[in-house]
Amino acid sequence: MPLIMLIAAASLPAQSPDYNDEEAYLDEDWPVQRGDPAVAEKYLLWAENAIGMGRWQQARAALERAVDFADVSSDISYLLALARSEEDESRKLVLESLQRAIGTGRWTRYTEAHARLMEADQLIFLRRYSAALDTLVVYKAIAGETADAAILRLVALKGLINRSSRTEPRPESVSLPVQVEFRRRMLETMDSYPRDPRPLRILFDYANGREPDRDDTALVEIALRRIPFLLEVDQELAWMAAPFISDTVEARRLVAAYRAGSLKPRQNADFIPHPASIIQALNLGLIDDNAAIDELFAESILDRDHINGVGALLRGEEGRNYLSEKLHSFTGAIVEDEDRDEHPESRALYYQGSLQEYYYDADQDNITDMFIVFNAGTPQQVELPTMLILWERYPLVRRAVVGSELYLSAPGGFSFAPIIFEELGGSGKYAGLLFPRYNSRGRSISRRVISSFASSVQRPSAEFPGGMEQIFLNRGIPVRAEVTLNNTIVSVTEFENGYPVVQRLDMDLDGRMETVRNFDRSGIKSSESDWYGGGVFGSAELYREDGSVVYSWDLDGDGTREYSELR
Asked: How many Å apart are CA 148 and CA 150, to the nearest integer?
């Protein structure tokens, strides 16, 4: 559960003893008026009681119905943000509710500080670390410094460091280099809240796998001295600290005690060691290869880093064979947290070792940005926010659907590779399991890119209802267009350099193209129609530059149009 959910849930008022259902607070006889503070209070009270009973879905539904009262109650928007977050709705919607609460500025049961803290948390989820740090500056001005704000600040700074190779504006509140600011804030937070284990978790995660310098080492040494006093509060610090403990015997003792569940005097009966602790136990010789693999696969959701971590430490070929066998018979999900912010961006689903589906959430807003379907481990199609791509043989595209348009590619003419594959496991006897990863260096995709490689595009005809227009393309440039209605071609347009030149149409659907239109680069210039099939264009339209149209008719069929009028 996100930090802010724990904070916010703790701040909710106690459940009312007479809670029953929504009608207990929102009776039909109440004179409901938009913007009525009294009605807003009734909605708020009902929602708080629903949340107190764990009925988040009902609370969210009630708060969404109460949106008409959000202009008189910031509390309603704040609770709606809380419910949306709990229900795993789009984090952008959560932020929208929070920003409305802050903008309204009419609080009774909560405060702007609550909203600012949650706003910073959601911005961190979305990797908008600079914005989160700026929000925490506002929070501090309102509520002063708190442990929760200090923790969020450290998480945001760590995120900025991990994303240092990407474009990220430096927040106005940070004047020092980000890594220097992180170390300064880390020392400050550990000194201010010495009994809080959260700074140590952040520090160990930051330092793990990183080449430490003198300043990082000094911070880790301070953290290690505090470990004995904080293990009862957060026993997972035992395995997180193990890589940094130079005394192997002590590291082994800590990890063994954690995994045995003996670090707490009252351990939960359902205690299960964190999967990441398997790597430390294997590295310290507490378990053998097969035991580590069996424990790893006891779960149906695996982490790519845990698989690789265990695989790298296996001591013999027998263990590597066993890992490969387990992977190729695995049913469940493998997730990846590429930027190590504890929120996986991708999830791959397997059935008996066969890759079935892949989900990718680029900005971690709880909305899938890419969904790929596989057949026997081979990508078949990908759903993107605005289009559907179908492969002929990955990565060669067969067709693409963008809105109501269907783009067809020439065989082998267009490739799109949003994922790459890596092998998990593997041994001298077995190949590893193919795992999809987002291809950050792949070609970006857009309607323009698709059309530039398409051989044709099909779309509903704008002129013939029920008809289908097919435009033939050469390097994205139209060369010919046909409209088919009821299996009959009713319109043909010829192009030069991408511009229409002449169009022939069957306007009365009698099987004969009696109308001819001529174009220049500014658009249609003229239209002539031979309605009777005698080779005489009995009516015509001339389109003038000022937008007017000259209509003319051959009234006696002698080939001369005697009458005309300007419209």
From this structure: 5
